[in-house]
Amino acid sequence: MKFTQRVSLAAGLLLILVGLYLMLPWKQERKKFQPKEILHQRSEKIFRNVVLQSGKTQKKEQKMCNLVNGGSPHYADISTYDLWAKTKFDTHLSGEWEMPDPTFSRSSVVPRLTVILMPHSHNDPGWQKTVDEYYTDQTKHILNNMVNKLTQYRNMTFIWAETVFFSMWWNELDDAEKMYVRRLVQRGQLEFVSGGWVMPDEAITHYGAVVDQLVEGHQWLWTNLGVRPENAWSIDPFGLSGTMPYLWRHSGMQHMVIQRVHQAVKASLSKQGALEFYWRQAWDNSYSNRSDYNGRERALLEFTDEKQVIGVDSVMAVDTTSDFDKNEHLNSIAAGGSASSDILCHIMPFMLYSIMYSCGPNPHICQRFDFGPTQSKNYEEKELAKDITVKSVARDAELLVSQFRAKASFFQFNVILVPIGDDFRYDKEVEWDRQYANYEKLMHYMNDRQDWNLDVRWGTLKDYFSLIDSEINKQDHVKHPVLSGDFFPYSDQNRAYWSGYFSTRPFDKHFCRDLQALLHAADSLNTLSYAYYMKWGLRKEAESRFFQFSAMLQQTRRLLALAQHHDAITGTSKDFVVEDYEKNLLTAYNQGQNVVRHIIQALLTKGKVESPIVFFPAHLRSSAFDIVRRQVIQIPSTGRGTVVTFYNPLGQFRSEVVSLLVDHSAVQVLSSQGKETLPSQISPVWVNASQRVFVEENVFEISFELNILPFSLVTVVLSKLPENILEDAKLHFARISVYNEAILIIPPNLPFMQAPLHPDWREDILVSNGLIELAIDPRTGSLLRLTHLKSGHTTRLRSSFQYYTSRGSGAYIFSPAGKASPLFPVNQKKFEKNFLRPLYSVIPTIRVSEGEIVTFIDISYHSIVFQRITIYSQPSHVASAIFIENVLNIQMLIDKEIVFRFDTDLKNHDLSYFTDQNGFQFIRRRTLHHLPIAANYYPMTSGVILEDAKTRLTLLSAQSHGCASLQKGQLEVMLDRQLVNDDFRGLDEGVRDIKTTVSHFVLFTEAIVGRQKMHSSFMPLSASLSLPALALQDSLHHPILIYFSSVDSDAFFHSLTPVPPPALPCDVAAVSMRSLVTESFGYNGTTLILHRRGYDCSPQTPWVELELVCVPSNPDLTMKDIFGDFAISQIHEMTLTSTKAKQSINPQDKLALKPMELSTFHFYF
C-alpha cells in the first residue's frame, strides 16, 4: 500500500473514532433529573456557591482518582487473607490447636540467650466486678504495693497499661508519694505501655473513639508524669485489628505486643518464622527503597503475565492461589527499607498471657514457676508454688531453662520476653516478695552456669525491644517479614470461635456510638464557643465558660473511653457490670446534652443570654435501659412559634431532609428571620391496637429539607397555619396506603389522602421517589429489588429476618446448631414439610406514607420486629439510597440469634467481600466452607461492601455488628442474641438482659465503571467507599443535632456560620476538633485531627447525576481555609495524641494531607 493511501486510511479511521467518541452517552449532555419541582426552590445563595465550587474541581477529583486507583500495588510477605485459606486447623484430643514442636540447634556451642523477665498485672476496668469494685478491692493495692516493692527491690520492674485506674489512684496520692512514682519511671523500673484510658476492644470500636481514649490517656500521662508511651501492649482483646497498629505507630509507639490470635494461625506463622513481624497497612506504598521495590513489582508483573496490576486504593495484592510458595517470586520487602506505617509486632506464641503459658510451650512446667496464687476463685484456697531452695534450684533451673530454649526456637533472635503476671496479680505483698525472691535465686544460678550461656534479667517492654532493635541492626542477613491484614475471628480451643461478641448486647454498642457522635459535636462546639468569645472580646467569659464546659466534657469523654474497654462495648461482662456501664453512659450522655444546650444558646445570643437554659434536645434518653425517644415539639397558638436550631458537626456542607414530631398537623416551617417558608410534608404517626390501624390524632411527623454549612447553627421557626390559608401553603400531606389490614382509622379532621385498603394484596408493592423504585413483598415485608428508573438497572435484594439456634453460644462464642431459618417463613406449609416448626407465622402489617419530600414504609412483625424503610426525594445521592431502621426485642426468643439477610443477584468472586475495620478502612474477607459458620463471621463497625464485576452494593451501619457472606450474593448482619448458657470463658452466665434495640442501615447500589480487570490470582486486599457513599456514611455517623425552644425572643432568631465555604473537601473528615485543658481546666490549645480518606472512583451511579455539595479533593488546603477569619497562632503538626511536635506551620501553608492518613494539628485561638 502506498504512503498516500495509508495516510488517507489512517485519517478516515481517525474521523470514525472521533465520531464514535462524540456519540458515547457519557459525553452527551445529560438532562438533570427533577424528581419533584417543589424541591428545587432553593433560595440560599451559599448553596449555589458550593455546588459551583464542586463543578470547578472535577479535574482535581480525577487527579485524586488517578492517585488512589492507579498507584503502585503494594506487597507484603504475608497477607492474613491468604493465611486463613492455607492454615491447617487441626486440634489435639484435648481440644487445643496444634502448635509446631520447638526446634533446637545441633551445634555443640550453645548460643547466647537473653531472657527478659517482666512482671505485669492485667486490670480490667469492669468484667466480673464494676470498675469501682475492682479498684477498691484489688487495683489500688496492686499500685500501692508496686511503689513499695519497686523501691525495695531496685532491679525489679513492672509495666502498666490502664490509665483509668492509674488516674484514680494518682488522685489519692500526696506529693511525696507522687515523687516516688516519678522516680520509678525515671529509673526505668516502671514503664507505661499503650497508655490509653483503657485497653480497647479492636473488633467493634470505632477508630474515632479509640483515638479519643488514646489522646485522653496520653495527655494525662504527659501532664502528670512527662511520659510518652513507646510500646503498645494489647494482650486481652479477642482478636486484633489492622487499624490499631497504625494508631499506635502514629501516636509515637515503635513496637507492640499482642496475644489473642487464633492458635492455628499462630502455628502457621510460627512455621514461617513470623511470630515477630512488621505490621504494615495494606494501602501503604511509602516503602523507602523504591528501586528494590520496583524490581519486585516487575517480577510480579512477569509472574502474572499482565501489563498492569492495579488495585482499588493503592492496595496490596493478595495471592488467592493454593500454593504458599508463590511469594518466593517476590523477595522480602523488609530488606533495605520500611513503610511509614510499619510497626514491629511480637505475638505471644502460646495460648494465654498468664505465667502458665509464658515461660515456654509446656504449661505444666511453667505453672511450677508461678510463685503467686493460682487460678482458684477464692484467694484463701489458692495453692502457692513451692519456693526455690538450695537443694531444688539446680533441678528447677534446668527445667525452666529448657522452656526458655524451647520458646526461643520460635523466634529469629536469641532474645525472649517472659511476662510474669496475670489478671489482677500482685495485689498482695507476699506475691511481690515470693516472685522476686524465687526468680532471683533462679536468675543467679542460671547466669552463673557458664555452660548454659544465659543472661536472665528483669526488664520492661522497652528493654526487650531495645535488644531486638540492636539485633536487627547487627544481623543484616536476618529480617523480620512484613504482614498486612488482621486477626479475626479468634479461637483459643475446641474449635470455639469468638465471633459472637461482635453482636452481643447491641443496645450498648448503639449507645456508645450515639454518645461518640454527641461528644464529637460537643467538642467542636466547645472549641467554637471559646473562639467566638475571644473574637467578641469576651476573654473573661471565654475562660469561665471553657472551664465549666471542659470539666463537664472530661467526665463525658472518660465515661465513653471506659466503655471502649474490651469487656464493655463487647457486652462480655456480668449483668450487673453491664448495667453499671449503661448508667455511666447515660450520665455521660446527659452531661454532653447539657453542654450542647448551653453553648447553642450562648452562641445564638452572642453570649448575652446564658441562663436560664431554654433549649431542649429533640432526642432524649429517659433511662439507661431505653432507646432514644423523640420529643413531641409543642407549637404555641400565639406568638411567632417554636424555634428549632440545628447544628452540623461535620466539616462539609449538608443538604438533608430532617423529620420532627409535632403536636399539630397544620404547621409551617419558616426561615430564622421569617422571610421564607420552606416546603414541608406532614406524615402520620401510627398506633396499633386490637389488630386495627390507627393514626395518632395529636402527634405528626413533619419533614423538610435543610441546607446547613460546616460547623454551623441554623434556626427555623415552626408555627401554626391559619386554616384559611392551609391549601395555599407549602405544606403537603402524605398519601396513606395500608396492606394486610382490613380497618384503618383516621380522625376526620386530618387531611391525609387515603388509598383503598389492601387486606389481602398479592402483587408487589411499588414505591418510588422518581429516582429509584422499591418493590416490597406484601406477604413478607421483604425488600425484593431496587430499580434505578433512568437506566432501568435493577438489583435483586430479597431481605429477610432469620435466626440461628444456639448450640453452646455465649457472650463471647458463636456456636450455632446449623444453618439459619426464616423467622417469619414465606410458606408455612412448605416449612413444616421439612420437619421445621416456624417460630412465628406472621403476615406483617405494612403502612406506606408517600409524599413529595419523603416516603416511609412501616412494617410490623408481631411484637418482635418493627422496620421502617425510608426513601427521600432530594438531594440526589441521598435519594439514591435506602434508609432502614430495625427496632427489635427478642426477649421471648430463647437461645436464638437473629440476623438480617439480603439474598442478591450479585456474583461475588470466591465468596469474597469487604468489611470495614473500625470505620477507618475496608479489608477483603472470604468465606471458607471447610470452616464452621462462626469462623466465617467478621466484625463490621460501619459498613460492608458486596460487589461483582458490574455492581457494588454497600450496606452502611450506624453501629457495630457481626456479618457474613455465606453464599454467593448473600449478605447477613447479626442484630441481637438471647443466650441461656455460659460459654465457659469466665462469666458463668448467659445473656438474658435483653432490651429493645435499634439498628440503622443505609443501602446503596452503584455501577462499577472503568476499573481495570485484575488477574484472577491477585485481588485487592483493601477497598474504599465512593464519594457519595462517604457522604452517606458521614450523615449516618454524625447526625444533625436538633434543639428547640418555645421562648419567643428576638435573641434566638439567628443562625451562625463560623467557616466560609469551602471548608473541608469531601474526602477529609474532622475526626476531632477538641480543645485541650490544663490540670485546672484552663485552655491549652486546640487539637484538630484530620483524616484524608481514600475513595474509589470506579463505583458510580450513571443512572442519575449526583450533586456533589463539597469539593471532592483539595491538595492546597490550608488552616486559613478551614478557620477563615478566626485568628490562630502557634500551629504545629503533632503526633496523633498531641504529645510531640513534628513541625511548625503557618496558616497559609499547604497541609499536604496524604491519602488514608491521619494528621494532627495543634494551635491556639
From TrEMBL:
Residues 496-585 form the Glycoside hydrolase family 38 central domain. InterPro entries: Gal_mutarotase_sf_dom, Glyco_hydro/deAcase_b/a-brl, Glyco_hydro_38_C, Glyco_hydro_38_cen, Glyco_hydro_38_cen_sf, Glyco_hydro_38_N, Glyco_hydro_38_N_sf, Glyco_hydro_57/38_cen_sf. GO terms for biological process: mannose metabolic process; N-glycan processing. The keyword Membrane applies. Binds 1 zinc ion per subunit. Its EC number is 3.2.1.-. Pfam families: Alpha-mann_mid (PF09261), Glyco_hydro_38C (PF07748), Glyco_hydro_38N (PF01074). SUPFAM superfamilies: Families 57/38 glycoside transferase middle domain, Galactose mutarotase-like, Glycoside hydrolase/deacetylase. Its cofactor is Zn(2+). GO terms for molecular function: carbohydrate binding; mannosyl-oligosaccharide 1,3-1,6-alpha-mannosidase activity; metal ion binding. Keywords: Glycosidase, Hydrolase, Membrane, Metal-binding, Transmembrane, Transmembrane helix, Zinc. It catalyses: N(4)-{beta-D-GlcNAc-(1->2)-alpha-D-Man-(1->3)-[alpha-D-Man-(1->3)-[alpha-D-Man-(1->6)]-alpha-D-Man-(1->6)]-beta-D-Man-(1->4)-beta-D-GlcNAc-(1->4)-beta-D-GlcNAc}-L-asparaginyl-[protein] + 2 H2O = 2 alpha-D-mannopyranose + an N(4)-{beta-D-GlcNAc-(1->2)-alpha-D-Man-(1->3)-[alpha-D-Man-(1->6)]-beta-D-Man-(1->4)-beta-D-GlcNAc-(1->4)-beta-D-GlcNAc}-L-asparaginyl-[protein]. GO terms for cellular component: Golgi membrane. The chain crosses the membrane at residues 7-26. It comes from the Eukaryota. Belongs to the glycosyl hydrolase 38 family. Catalyzes the first committed step in the biosynthesis of complex N-glycans. It controls conversion of high mannose to complex N-glycans; the final hydrolytic step in the N-glycan maturation pathway. This is Alpha-mannosidase. It comes from Plakobranchus ocellatus.
